[in-house]
Fold:
Amino acid sequence: MRPVYNFKAAEKQHERGGIVMRRYIRAAWLTLVLLFAMVATALANYPGTLDSGNLVLVDGGMGVGYYADRSSVKVEQYAPPKYRLAINVVSVEFSDEYWQSHGTYIDGPYNKGDSFTLKFRYNWDRKVISYQRGKTWLDWDVNHDYCHADGNPMIPFTAEVAFVSAYNKRFFDDKLGYSPMLKKHLRVIDEQLYLRLGI
Structure:
């Protein structure tokens, strides 16, 4: 005797699977939205500048801020529309005790740590950058959802600080990139960075 296929049971199983999948997708989407909000909120808890504006916040998390050193900018190539710049980024460790009592690192004590150099290539006409990792140059794709591990916001923010410091004009300005996860366009550089740079 041939087994009888139960279509109604299969249909119910399929419906349950669809409901579970929709819940997973909603949870993943909500997690991503919260991560974007946390990055913006996290940077708001750090001083925007240090050393009378010479150090500009480009990233931060877990009590450590990363600051681009405007005085360290070196022009390696000036051939408009192509430019190449290098800039140092300094890690700054903030006081956990200050955070616990004030809920912010702003106006709190800090210690400067190690620094490292980032190098960028710019194409003014196309408004694109690439950055050097080891001996390889990587293009920065503005139409992508990045996280801290991928270099966001450090890569584009540091590139912008270097360009503004070298040439006193905005590179990305109000250029938009598309977020596939949020399904909308967002500015590559937040206006707050330009306020910190005074431009």
